[in-house]
Write a structure and sequence with these properties.
The chain has 123 residues and is mostly loops. The protein has a domain at 62-101. Helix content is 12%, strand content 5%. It is built from one helix and two strands. It has a two-stranded antiparallel sheet with strand order 1-2. It starts with 18 loop residues before the first strand and ends in a 38-residue tail after the last helix.
Amino acid sequence: MAAETAIPQFGPDVATAWAVAHADGDDYIPPEQGPGPVKFDPAHPFVPTDPNGSTQPTYRVADLSNPILKPWAVEQMRKANADVLNGKVPYVPRERCWPAGVPAFVLEPPFNITVFIQTPKEA
C-alpha cells in the first residue's frame, strides 16, 4: 500500500485574516499579527457620520506608513490625502452608485456575505 499524501488544510488563518468592522460602515479590523489593512492617519483621525449630529464627520486621510503599500500606491494616496486636507471631497464610489472595487465590494449589499474558498485544486 502506497503512503498516503497528507491533504493540506486550506481553512482561514484567523491570526492573520482581516475582519470587517461595521461600527462606522467600512473599516477592517487588523489581524492579531502580520500586516493589516490601510487605516486612517493617526494625525488626522477619521470621524464617521453621527446620526445625532453631535460630531463633525471627516473624510479619511490614509496612513501612508502601512508596509503593504507599494511605492506607486503611496504616491497616489499621498495625492488623495493632499486633496482631502485641502478641502476637496474625495472619490467615494458608493456616493456615485459605482462599484466599490476590491476589497471594498464585500462591504456593499448584496455582497456583504462573501466566502472565498481555497481547495487543493483551486486557489
